[in-house]
Amino acid sequence: MVLQKLESTALCIWRVTDGKRGHxxxxxxxxxxxxxxxxxxxxxxxxxxxxxxxxxxxxxRHLSIDxxxxxxxxxxxxxxxxxxxxxxxxxxKTVVLMKPSLPCHWFDLCIIPKHDxxxxxxxxxxxxxxxxxxxxxxxxxxxxSGLILIGGPSQHYQWDxxxxxxxxxxxxxxxxxxxxxxxxxxxxxxxxxxxxxxQVSTQHLEIAPYHAVNEDWLPDQLAQAEVVWLSPDSVxxxxxxxxxxxxxxxxxxxxxxxxxxxxxxxxxxxxxKIVRFSDWQSKQHMPAANTTFNEALRCAQWIKSxxxxxx
Length: 311
Description:
The chain is of the alpha/beta class. It folds into two domains: 11-127 and 295-307, Glycogen Phosphorylase B (Rossmann fold, 3-Layer(aba) Sandwich), CATH 3.40.50.2000; 135-283, 3-Layer(aba) Sandwich (Rossmann fold). It contains ten helices and 14 strands. The chain has helices at 21-35, 50-59, 80-90, 161-174, 192-199, 217-224, 235-243, 260-270, 277-283, 295-307; strands spanning 11-17, 40-46, 71-75, 93-97, 109-113, 123-126, 145-149, 157-158, 179-183, 205-207, 227-230, 247-250, 254-255, 274-276. The strands form three sheets. Strands 2-1-3-4-5-6 form a six-stranded parallel sheet, sandwiched between helices. Strands 10-9-7-11-12-14 form a six-stranded parallel sheet. α1 crosses α10, α2 runs parallel beside α3 (80-90) and α4 packs across α5 (192-199).
C-alpha cells in the first residue's frame, strides 16, 4: 500500500511514542516548538517492537494511517526501530531525541545533549534534554514563590541527606518572605522527609511527596515558581526549570569523578545561568531568570530552515 499525501499546507508529523511520560514530554517540546513556526498536523503512533518494526520494513508494510508523514519524531530506545522502519517506508525525515541505541547515521537527525559527547554531521547538540516547559511558562509566575526539588543517590554525586537538609534549613530561614514547596522523587531516600521534619521548620514550607501528586503537578509548579532549588543530581528538572524561566540554584554535593553531567552543570554555573548554594550563601544573589533558554525552539528552527523552508 502506498500512502498518499493529502492536500494540505500543514506539516504532517508522526510522533512515535513508547508510553513513557518523560519521553513524551521530550517529543512534545519539539512538536510544540514546531507548532509555533509552521502549521502542523500531529498523529501519535505507538511504537512497534523491534522485530515487528523490522518485519514491516522488510515486508514493505505501512501502518493503516491515511496521511503520510513529512516528519517522524521519537524519544526512547523502544521507538528507534519504528522510526527507522517508517522513515524508510514513507520517505519522511526522522528525528530521534537523545543518543540512540542504533547507529546515528540510520536517522536523518539526532538531537543529543552535550553531556553524551556525540559527534556527527547529522547530530544537533543541545544543553540538556528537550522539554515542553516553554509553552507553560508565559506570564504565570507567582511573586516570591519557590520550589525545592530533591532527587537522590546517582552515579554523578555522592548523596548526603544531612548536607542537603542543612542547606534547605539555611535557605528557608534566610528567605522567610518566600512561600516554598518541596517535592521528592523516586530516588529520594525513604527517611529523607523524616529527617527534614526533625530539623526544618515548615512554617513557610509545604511538603508534596512525589507519590502524593499527579503527573501534571511538577510542570504546573515550574510554570508558577520564580525560584527553583534542586539537588544537583536532578538533571532533567534543572533544564526544565531553566526553560520555564525560573531563577535556578543547585545545592552542594560532592561530585564523583569523570562525570559529564557534573561538567555540564559546572559550565552552567560558570555561565551564570545557575548558582550553587555556597556561592548564593556568600552573596545572597540569584541569577536572573533566563527567558530565552529554549532548546526545543532552537531545534525546531533548524528543522524548519533546513528541511521545510517553504512551509
